[in-house]
Amino acid sequence: MDKLILTDGDVIDHAQIKSDLLEWIGGENLRELGFDPWSAMQFSLALAEEGIPLVEVPQTVRNLSEAMKETESLVYAGRFHHSNHPVMNWMMSNVTVKPDKNDNIFPNKSTPEAKIDGPVAMFTAMSRMLVNGGEPEPDLSEHLVSVGIRSL
């Protein structure tokens, strides 16, 4: 797979992204696809029409704090591995975290132009795994794929 797939033009090509997504998940045992509903109504409806089981996961402290803490714990324990993808590495380097008074955390951008979509997708997937009672296996990456959770 390419490092980054560009679409033609200056706007997001939702039809191309939908086509790529359907090809990517084809044949997988996809239980659900978590998504942030903010500005995603049209795209989520198009995916639902294809029979993709969608679950809204708003980007809130409530949905992402525990997932971020679990991910951090697994990284430090040496139990979370990824493919060392350069785009994901770059996006992770853009994530900043500032705990609130209750020690909740939330992913923020280091600068307004920084991109953190990949890490947020990963935290969303982790959030859904925790909600569904999933226990991380020795290799969390393999477990996420085995239960139908993949990040774009």
Q: What can you tell me about this protein's structure?
A:
There is one protein chain. By secondary structure, the chain is mainly alpha-helical. It has a domain of about 90 residues. About 45% of the residues lie in helices and about 5% in strands. It is built from 6 helices and 4 strands, in the order H-E-H-E-H-H-E-E-H-H. The chain has a two-stranded parallel ribbon. The protein has a two-stranded antiparallel sheet with strand order 3-4. Helix 3 crosses helix 5. It is globular and about 40 Å long. The mean pLDDT is about 85.
Distance between the terminal alpha carbons, to the nearest Å? 11 Å
Strand content: 5-15%
Percent of residues in helices comes to: 40-55%
Query: How would you describe the shape?
Result: globular
| Mean pLDDT, all residues | 87
Total count of strands = 4
Q: How many H/I helical runs?
A: 6
Strand order of the largest sheet: 1-2
Compact summary:
This is Putative phage terminase, large subunit. The protein is mainly alpha-helical. It is 45% helix and 7% strand.
